[in-house]
Amino acid sequence: MKILETEIALKLNTLFTVLERNEHFFNSPLHVHPEFELVYVRESFGKRIIGNGIEPFEPGDMVLIGPQLPHVWINDEMFMEGRADKRARSLILYFHPSILESGIFNLQEATAIRELLTKSGSGLSIHGVTREKVVTLMERILVAKGFEKILCLLQLLHELSGSADLIPLNAEELINHERGKEKDRLCEVYRFVNENFRTDIQLKDVSRLTNLTPQSFCRLFKKRNKIHFVEYLNQVRISNACRLLLDSDWTISEIAYNCGYKTISNFNKLFKETTGYAPKHYREVAKTGVVMDNKV
Asked: Membrane-spanning regions, if any (predicted)?
């Protein structure tokens, strides 16, 4: 099962819209599309994969996803098995990049919005008061008609572009010109990891790319990304393993070794800790939508 490439604008015959979803569980596969997507989870919980980032989600979770960034929401087993007393409910805004071709977005006053949408290429988690304001605007778009919908979208983008409540979800896409030297150092690390995660990556080799000692490198990486380097490396490996489970017929062993794991037992353990599923179970659920016994 390949990563699904779709186009929301064609499917819905509109360049932007807000949809409400109310399902037993979120059943979209890992997919990409050319639209920007803003997702607010009203009910349910589980794990979400956005780019190389794998994190838990719960009610209130909100993220902005840029075009062609792979993503999927995987509910906890209790939803997929029908044991949950609640449903999977979300509010989703889609808008196509062609909207930005309007001359208004080329004005100097729209600089902050253009920068926001560039940063969304890494995925952005939205928190605090900003999230509350954005939910209100999404709900207004849901019922608005005519040009009022456009005004609400512009206001929503304005709120996001001026907010400090945004957190990048994928470190390799971070853009921060004010931290140029430190960012440039880590860019080499992100590139190295993405090109070599299949091999045995040693901390001393990675820290050498930044001209720092291993201890100083670890402090810098944790400061910038809020996670340890080893956690980031595992996220990249598991994210690629998820794609191979969906996009290939390789065995679990072949996928484990291809993603840099030396033993199957370690791969199975880390995969389940990260996604909540054993690799075989993850593949079966993603391909068929039928929940199997969660065994390796």
From this structure: none
The reply to whether 293 falls in a domain is no
- For the entire predicted model, the pTM comes to 0.66
Given a contact cutoff of 8 angstroms between Cβ atoms, the answer to whether 56 and 125 are in contact is no
SS3 235: helix
Give dist(CA 44, CA 278) in Å, integer: 21
pLDDT of 116 over the 60 cut: yes
Asked whether the beta carbons of 53 and 239 are under 8 A apart, the reply is: yes
Question: Mean pLDDT across the stretch 230-256?
Answer: 91
Contacts 24+ apart (CB under 8 A), 245-250: 245/279, 245/282, 245/283, 245/286, 246/1, 246/2, 246/3, 246/29, 246/30, 246/283, 246/286, 246/287, 247/1, 247/2, 247/3
Res. 11: pLDDT tops 70: no
Return the CATH number at 249: 1.10.10.60
Inter-CA distances, 9 with 18, 43, 79, 268, 284, Å = 12, 26, 29, 38, 30
Claim to verify: residue 154 and residue 77 sit in the same structural domain: yes
State mean pLDDT over 122-136: 96
How confident is the model at residue 213, as a pLDDT?
94
- Domain range for 207: 175-288
- Phi and psi at 206, nearest 5°, equal -70, -45
Let me know whether 74 and 93 are in one domain: yes
Q: Which of 172, 205, 221 is the last residue of a domain?
A: 172
- Across the strands, what pairs with 91? 20, 40
Residue 156 confidence (pLDDT) above 70: yes
Taking the C-alpha atoms of residue 117 and residue 120, their distance in angstroms, rounded to an integer, is 5
